[in-house]
User: Fold this.
Amino acid sequence: MGFKTDIQIAQEATPRIINDIAASLGIPEEAVENYGRYKAKIDPKALKDLPEKAKLILVTAITPTPAGEGKTTTSVGLTDGLRKIGKNAVVALREPSLGPVFGIKGGAAGGGYAQVIPMEDINLHFTGDFHAIGAANNLLAAMLDNHIQQGNSLGIDPKQVTWKRAVDMNDRQLRHIVDGLGGKVQGVPREDGFEITVASEIMAVFCLATDLMDLKARLARIVVAYTYDGKPVTAHDLKAEGAMTALLKDAIKPNLVQTLEGTPAFIHGGPFANIAHGCNSVSATRTALKLADYVVTEAGFAADLGAEKFFDIKCRLTGLKPSAVVVVATVRALKYHGGVPKGDLNTENLEALEKGLPNLLQHVGNIRDVFGLPCVVAINAFPTDTAAELALVEKRCNELGVNVALSEVWAKGGEGGMALAEEVVRLCEEPNCFGFSYPLDMNIEEKLDAICRRVYHADGVSLTANAKKQAQQLTELGFDKLPICMAKTQYSFSDDAGLLGAPKGFTVTVRNLKVSAGAGFIVALTGDIMTMPGLPRVPAAEKIDVDADGRISGLF
Assistant:
C-alpha cells in the first residue's frame, strides 16, 4: 500500500451522522443545530443544569522546531486511545485559521490516522465562526471611525486609536496602511492596519466568555482608543456591544464533529498562542466536561507559552482545574535543539539528543514544579527513531520521576495511543497541587518578572522606557491586577528565536504593553511579534485544488 496523505485518509473515512455522535453523549435533540450531516452546533443552555464531572487533560509540547511535534495529532489519538480502553472521552480543540492553512503551516485537524473530520470543512469555512468574529471586529472599527467623522463628541485622538481591522488571511500588505483618503466625505485620514482575525481581541473575548451575556459584557469593555486627555474609549462608549453580540450569537455555540474513529470532538475558537492565550473556548471546554469522564484539550505552541497561559489565564479566570498534562516531543525535534541541521535529523545522534534534552526536561520541570501538576512525556514516534535514542529520552525523564509513553497515533490511530491513555488515566488519579506562576496582586513588572524567571528561566525582565510609561498608565487606569499574556517568539524559551534548547543568562525585554480589557489581560509584547503574518515564498495555497465533483486536494 502506498503512502496516503492526510486528506486522502480523511476522505476515505465513513463518518457517523453527527446526530448519532450527539446522542452518544446524551445531548438532547433540541440542543443540536445541524450544519449539514457531519457538523453541528450545540446550545449550551440546554445543558446548563448538568454538572462538570470530567477529568481535564492538557496536551502541550516542547519548543517547536521545523521538525514538527504533532500536538493536535497526539490530542486526537490520545482521546481515541482513551475510548479504546473503555473510557468516555471527548477532545476539545481550537479551530484552524485560514491564514496558516493557505500559508506555511497547512491545516490543523491532526494527521495520519488521528484526525478530526470533516477535515476539509474544519480547515476552511467550517460553521462560519471566524467570519462572524471578523465581522464584529470590523463593525467596531467602522463605528469608531464613523464617530470621529460625525463630530467626535468623545474627543478621540486619531493618533491614539488602538483598534485595528481584521481579516482571516496572511496578508503582509495590510500590516501598515493609511486610510480615509479622498476628501472630507471619505473619512478622516489616519494611519491604520489589519490584524489576522485570530489575533483580534474579539477572538480572545469569544474564547473566554462563559455565555452570551458575559460575551456582551466583555465586548463592552474593549478599549479601542484614547481621548486627547488620555482617557480610554470603549466599545460601550460607542454603543457597539449590542450589535457585535448579535453577530456572534450563533458563533458562541460550540461546534461538534468527530474523529476518524467516531470519537466526539468539540472544535471552537482559535486565538493566536503568541499574541493571545491560545486555547479553545471556555464554552466548548465546559460543555465537554459535562458530557464525558475525560476531556483532552490542547494549548498553542510550547508549554512556556500555551500551557502557561492555559493555567495563568484560562484556568485562573474560569476556575478550571486540570488533572494531568501531556508534554509532546519528538526525537527529531530534540536533536534539532541539540544543534543538528534539519536535513540530518534522520540519523542517530545520541550526543546531539543529550544536548537537546534540557528543552524537554525544563518544560516538564515547569509543569511539575511551577504549576504543581503530574505529567507524562509522549514521544511522537517516527520510523527513524532508534532504540538507543528512545531509551535515552526515557532515562532522562525517569530521572525526574516522569514516565514516557511512545505515541504511534499517526500510524495506528487510537490503538497507537492506548499506552499513553493508560498512563494519563493513572496520573488523573494522583493528587496534585495545581497553582499559578504568580499571584494577581503583584504589580505589572513583578508579574512579568515572575513569568520570565520561573517559566522561561531568565535572569529577569527589562522594560523599555515606553513599556515603563505604559505600565504606569495601565496601573493608574486600574488594570494592574489583570493577568499577563506574554507575546513572544514560540521558537525559544527566550525572546530570541535563535536561542534553542534551554538557554541561560538572558533577560527578556518587554517593549510594549497594552490592555485587552474585554479578554481580561494585559498583553506584553517582546521581540518582533507581528499580529498579521505574511505568506511564504511558496504558499500552501498553490497546492490546493478542487475537481469537478467538488473534491478538494492538497490540504494537509
Remarks:
- The longest strand covers residues 508-516.
- The two ends are 19 Å apart (CA to CA).
- The mean pLDDT is 94.
- The chain has 18 helices and 25 strands.
